[in-house]
Amino acid sequence: MSTSPPPNPPPFDPFPIRSSERIYDSPWCGLRRDVVELADGALQEYHVFEISDAVAVVPVLPDGSIVMLWQFRHPHGRSHWEIPAGRIDAGETPERAAERELLEETGYRPGRLERVGGFYPSNGISAHFAHVFIAHDCIQEDAPQPDAAERFFPRVLAAEDVRQRLVAAEFEDGFTTIALYHHFARRS
Question: For a surface tag, which of 14, 64, 118, 119 has the fewest beta carbons within 10 Å of its beta carbon?
Answer without folding.
Answer: 14
